[in-house]
Amino acid sequence: MIRHLLLTLSSTALLAACAHQPSSTAKTHEWPLYGHDYSNQRFSPLTQIRRDNVDKLVPAWTHQTGVKATFQATPIVVDGVMYVSLPFNHVLALDAKTGQSLWKYEHKRNKDWKMCCGPANRGVAVANGKVYIGTVDARLIALEAKTGKVVWDINAVCEDVVTEGIDALHENDPLSRERVSGGTGIGIAMAPTVINGKVIVGITGVGYGLHIEEDRPDAPLGAVIGVAGRYGRPGFLAAFDANTGKRVWQFDTIPTEGWEGQFTPTTPDGIPLNRDLDKERATFKQYQDAWRFGGGSAWTTPAIDPKLGLLYFGTGNPSPQMDDVSRPGDNLYTVSLVALEIATGKIRWHFQQVPHDVWGYDLASPPVLFDYVQDGRHIPAVGQASKTGWFYVHDRATGKLLKKSEAFVPQSNLFAHATKEGTRV
Fold it and tell me: What single-letter DSSP state applies at residue 169?
């Protein structure tokens, strides 16, 4: 049985006891940004749907897309039009009241490009009379909001991308003696955001290494198979001119100098990481160019503070993902909350939740902005959920850790390393 994607209308709200809802110039009945506004709180001030009537909701309309794939996008609603990105980066414009199709953009992928992470994406951005979408083949495209016609179409990854082969595996990896095909595909999963005439977007797929290819058409790359070797590349977040697509700045998530950090034995909040620091320091000279293969994807749409002129985003895991032999050090700025200057892309501060990650504890949730109340003072803060089960609250301007929540899940052997006998994490 063929399952088609259904688009339905719903209402959600994010309520935080320590937060004051940010003011917004958007019309209350619209959803103009991925997180509703730059705070990423996804809070709507609408009051028609309440606790006492939410059980009476029924679908207003349904639109069949005909796409047989997973759907992750947040629809954008501006001036009565709903803009929806579909799997494989097709875009629909619908009448928000009736669901009637106004136009459709059909994306044509580069034929030889490999998808790292499936065909789904998180959504579009709408501004300046244009609709912006990042694609699974690492392109950034601007469409006319009224017609869906292409205004410009650029490659977000400006250099030639080499898909890794089996020779990228470490010589001691048993898989290097097998017949294996596949490689890392670089793409864009996040919904872009637009601020001060700039389209902000980041790339994904840089931290996985070799994959298995499937024979069926449009199949995403399969499970990671290479666990040692020199594959991958640095991730980045970049700003592009909203009118022309010209690259304004680019922040690489792996610095060319200082990427090894301080060989930190604990997390920033003092939890031991059980690292063999002597061994890492001993191999540093051999792998001092590990930044070239460093990983650090940018998965989620940044939160933005226009007053401070800063944006905040989380980074992915280092590469190789599991075998850490070839990447001694802290692997900056992977698994970090990073604050950048909107105008220049220069880093203002960072907080690395897990230095030298080998567990896949990357930052997969969008940062959220709110006012944190401490000793009667309202401090502009940024919050970041963690795969380790804690929620971190930081001073937005300095990055100072203001609060670490109680654990949301039981913690046991959180930073234990794998053993031949098996280790429960």
Answer: B
Cα distances from 345 to residues 310, 333, 350, 388, in angstroms, run 9, 14, 13, 28
Angle at 215 between CA 296 and CA 160, to 5 degrees: 40
- pTM comes to 0.89
Rounded CA separation 358/423 (Å): 14
Residue 228's pLDDT band, with cuts at 50, 70 and 90, is low
pLDDT digits (tens, 9 = 90+) for 233-290: 899 999 999 999 999 999 999 999 999 999 999 999 999 999 999 999 999 999 999 9
Q: Does residue 311 have a pLDDT over 60?
A: yes
CA–CA distance, 263 with 330 (Å, rounded to integer): 6
Instruction: Give the 3-state secondary structure of residue 289.
Output: coil
Of the candidates 196, 179, 188, 116, the residue with the CA atom closest to the CA atom of residue 153: 188
Residues in CB range of 140: below 8 A, 6 or more apart: 132, 133, 134, 153, 154, 156, 188, 192, 199, 201, 240, 245
Averaged over 341-351, what is the pLDDT? 98
| 331-343: pLDDT as tens digits | 999 999 999 999 9
Q: Tokens for 147? A: 């017609």
Say if residues 38 and 305 touch (Cβ distance below 8 Å).
yes
d(CA 22, CA 303) in angstroms, rounded, equals 12
Q: Give residues with Cβ within 8 angstroms of 237, minimum separation 6.
A: 200, 201, 202, 250, 251, 253, 298, 302, 313, 340, 345
**Residue 295 Cα distances to 90, 279, 327, 347, angstroms:** 27, 22, 11, 18
d(CA 200, CA 265): 34
In sequence order, which residues have a C-beta less than 8 Å from that of residue 277 and are 6 or more positions away?
Answer: 263, 265
